[in-house]
Amino acid sequence: LSAASAALALTVSAGAVSAACDDGEIVVKFSHVTNTDKHPKGIAASLLQERVNEEMDGKMCMEVFPNSTLYNDDQVLEAMLQGDVQLAAPSLSKFENFTKVFRIFDLPFMFENIDAVDSFQASDAGQDMLDSMQRRGLQGLGFWHNGMKQFSANVPLLEPSDAEGLKFRVQTSDVLVAQMEALGASPQPMAFSEVYGALQTGVVDGQENTWSNIYGQKFFEVQDGITETNHGIIDYLLVASSDWLDSLEPDVRDQFMTIVAEVTETRNAESYNVNQENRQAIIDAGGEVRELSAEQRQAWVDAMRPVWDQFVEDVGQDNIDAAQSHNS
Ligand code: LMR
């Protein structure tokens, strides 16, 4: 090995949780963008890998590539359709080029908490969404939870007017662009892996994300503080290509799908707790967490809630009504 290829080998093995697949095993590359520890998606991906590699030894072999080491979310779905990666779990905000039905999950203040998201997804309307991209060659295997989003910026955010004129990184979602425009802020769509640097250098002033992402990516270190708005959600679609799923022998596919369903249920039940641990970890590390009074929070609702009107036609009033019926 030359020094350069040794260094490359080290980098690759640090990125992939390598499972050293055997000849004859179906190799499943799972690419995602978050950290693995203390993260709802990272933990779920690791558990899935562990179970597949134990229970399907000799048949299937999974390798997880976290932290955007293989692809970022803007590339991964195309890579999947090319057959370069078999599994991914982008946030529901990242399917804009494939379907508009997931826009409902980005509408601000649509869901009160992750339990409401869970029960909406379990309903017929939610389950139908797993199949919404079949025409485009993608099959949803299940919804994976992260949690509620919070705002952070390089200045304190207490009133919606505090966000006016600031640049906020958003995921690549038209709803999130409209949401920031409703606040008089300037939305900057950007890949997750670039956010820390953009906050640090002042390319953007703020961002919105869950406690686990704010802690996992250390955003709190380069922000004035985090305001506990719980104004939206980040949730994921565990997704594969229809071609790849169809290529599996029925018994292999069934065993794989059973493990997927069990991991999904087990880890979704913990996502709230994982995020609360990250919230506490931010505080313990000296990050500033600002809580809003009921009156202050209502002002954020009033400012952002009108965004729904722009997207009713895309998501359907019936879906909005259904989603709302799952709030307590
Ligand atoms: C983001 O881009 O902020 C999130 O979708 C990242 C993630 O996967 O949680």
UniProtKB/TrEMBL annotation:
Domain of life: Bacteria
InterPro entries: DctP_fam, TRAP_DctP, TRAP_DctP_sf
PANTHER family: C4-DICARBOXYLATE-BINDING PROTEIN DCTB (PTHR33376:SF7), PTHR33376
Family: Belongs to the bacterial solute-binding protein 7 family.
Keyword Repeat: no
Protein name: C4-dicarboxylate ABC transporter
Signal peptide coordinates: 1-19
Keyword Transport assigned: yes
Primary residence: periplasm
Pfam families xrefs: DctP
GO cellular component: outer membrane-bounded periplasmic space
Keywords annotated in UniProt: Periplasm, Signal, Transport
Subcellular localization, as worded in the UniProt entry: Periplasm
GO biological process: C4-dicarboxylate transport; transmembrane transport
